[in-house]
Design brief:
Blueprint lengths: L6 H9 L1 E2 L25 H9 L2 E4 L3 E5 L16 E2 L3 E5 L7 E7 L5 E6 L7 E6 L24 E4 L4 E6 L13 E3 L2 H9 L3 H9 L2 E3 L6 E6 L5 E7 L2 E6 L4 E4 L9 H4 L3 H12 L6 H11 L4 E8 L4 E6 L4 E5 L4
Parallel strand pairs: 1-4, 3-7, 11-12
Antiparallel strand pairs: 2-3, 5-6, 5-16, 6-17, 7-8, 8-9, 9-10, 10-13, 13-14, 14-15, 17-18, 18-19
Helix pairs in contact: 3-4, 6-7
């Protein structure tokens, strides 16, 4: 059943500009703060432990929370999506000992959440969530709608060193395949983080599902794993296309890459800047250098810049206000 936002929240969301959306099968929960979360499969103690872990760490505002217990990543509710501005992502794997995934997330001034998950039937992960899509405001203390936060990863990395992020692609169209379940265009990231250890496994997760772009900007996705492998997943003329990374790096902004010559891709300003630096560096960059690249292509509406060390497990996050946070995920 389609759910609708209260009038004020709907007006706010329609006014926003962003690089991604959840789509009609995507994860936006609205209602009272005491409403039963759709995704939670926790017992009462686990839910309380999760809520008790919430803390504010930055004036973005940025929050952190550790999710305790199980959730169902397949349940869905809807939200009216915003229109895209742009995001910038890249993988640098010129040094096979330290492949790195990086992204700028460009959005409106909404609160964000760093979420740790460790589902009993999936991989542990760290992901970043825009909690406005849950109907949660800048003061989320005690708001049990946060228990649906696992449904909303806009980027993240799991314990196997598999990372994924998204960006708007206005040209994308996805044609449903009979017999496959349909998921929202952000929800697919949760399924990838929970179930995939490699790029090949992540592509297989995409292949097993139909994506629903209705009502919001269509998307494309960048994947990378601890081996340094990477791929862009796009939807061209209704069909899923996979563009594998070559030459030690791969970048993604808001222009299609599947079947597009590299010189054409570089006509996009942000893509061209990223490509030039990574080419000159032989695709060898550490987190400091990656953040300098992200800073060079950041926009006025960039909400966060994050790097994921695919073998080190280090997550380094810089928010729009300049605050920096570091997290460590145990990876093999």
């Amino acid at each position: 059943m389609r759910r609708t936002l209260p009038a004020v929240a709907t007006a706010l969301l329609l006014a926003l500009t962003s690089c991604a959306t959840s789509g009609p099968a995507g994860p936006s929960r609205v209602g009272s703060p005491a409403a039963t979360p759709a995704a939670s499969r926790q017992d009462a103690a686990q839910a309380e432990q999760t809520m008790a872990s919430l803390r504010r760490v930055d004036d973005l505002p940025l929050y952190e929370m550790t999710y305790v217990g199980a959730y169902d990543p397949t349940v869905g509710t809807d939200a009216a999506p915003p229109s895209p501005f742009g995001c910038s992502l890249f993988v640098a794997a010129g040094d096979p000992a330290r492949p790195l995934f990086a992204r700028n997330f460009d959005w409106d001034a909404n609160p964000a959440l760093v979420l740790r998950t460790d589902p009993p039937d999936g991989y542990a992960a760290v992901s970043l969530v825009d909690i406005s899509y849950l109907g949660v405001g800048a003061d989320p203390a005690g708001d049990r709608r946060l228990l649906d936060a696992p449904l909303l990863p806009f980027d993240g990395m799991n314990e196997r060193g598999l990372a994924v992020g998204l960006a708007a692609d206005d040209a994308a169209t996805a044609r449903p395949v009979a017999g496959r379940p349909t998921v929202g265009s952000v929800r697919i990231l949760r399924l990838v983080l929970d179930r995939a250890a490699t790029v090949d496994e992540a592509v297989a997760v995409f292949t097993r599902h139909n994506l629903d772009f209705d009502g919001g900007p269509p998307l494309h996705y960048l994947l990378a794993d601890a081996s340094g492998a990477s791929a862009v997943v796009e939807f061209v003329d209704g069909e899923m296309r996979v563009e594998r990374g070559t030459g030690g790096w791969q970048a993604l902004t808001n222009v299609p890459v599947a079947g597009v010559p590299e010189q054409r891709r570089r006509e996009d300003r942000r893509y061209g800047q990223i490509a030039a630096v990574l080419t000159d560096a032989g695709a060898v960059v550490d987190a400091d250098a990656a953040h300098r690249i992200l800073a060079a292509v950041r926009q006025g509406h960039t909400r966060w810049s994050v790097t994921y060390g695919l073998r080190s497990g280090e997550v380094r996050l810089i928010t729009a206000g300049g605050g920096e946070r570091r997290y460590q995920l145990a990876v093999p």
